[in-house]
Amino acid sequence: MSRRLLVFLILLFVSGKLAFAQNKNAEEKSDPDSTGVVNSALLPSIAPLLLFDEEKEKDEKKEKKKKARKNIWFGIKTQRGFTRREIRGQSYYEYFNYTDAERNPDPYIRDVYWYNPKERAIKTSGYTRGSGYLLHGPYERIVNETVVESGMFYYGTKHKTWMLFDDNNVLQDKNHYSEGWPRESRITYYNQESKSIEEIIPIQYGLEEGNYFYFHEDQQIAVTGEYKYGEKVGLWTEYWDTNNEKAIRKREIQYQEEPYTKNFRPYIRAEWDKDGNLIYRKDI
């Protein structure tokens, strides 16, 4: 065999392997289930420390009056903003404070409120650094000249007491939050002394509402999902315990997209082994 032919065959073999590898990578990228290994803000996980400190709240109330005039809330200098809309002859106003302090929102909280200056609107999802400003401080929503909602934000999350009023400014509802967590939330612990969390069930108005979390004993996320009006909705995900080294999905269960959907049966959408290899996927 001549040297030229040998070189040609080697190059042909190498280029074939490269093409195969590229096609394989392309297929894996186009298939989100090709591996159970995922990038997750929750993993490796530092579980939230849910301590509803009443003494701390008393101290904050004393400081509130001193700093309100300077737009300083919870030790952070803020700016005031407002939005205005006209809908069917009624004027809707939102008055709020926001901060340009760089801070990643708590990944455990479902609704993070932020101000989008380009759209001049308040959003509850899609926040990234540089895209807008987290609400921080007092908030009021007014219809015509009547306050219909008021409360406080802490780095984009509802905090302290929130009140809802009718068109005659009569109090209709009152809720209490601690940095985005409803105070009614049910929390169980593996260890009460170290506050090693086992499960967080978000409760609002007496019903499950918000993001649900279950943890392995090493505090790595075990299960995530969402409740709406007391019903499981969307995709619920179970994770293997990898000692917080990486996030590997174990199983995904598909629930109804909206609560109280008739004739919907939850089903297992996909399963992976401990190495992240796909072992089952439902054909739809």
Automatic annotation (TrEMBL):
Keyword Signal: yes
Claim: Signal is one of the keywords in the record: yes
Source species, domain of life: Bacteria
Keywords noted in UniProt: Signal
Signal peptide boundaries: 1-21
Protein's UniProt name: Antitoxin component YwqK of the YwqJK toxin-antitoxin module
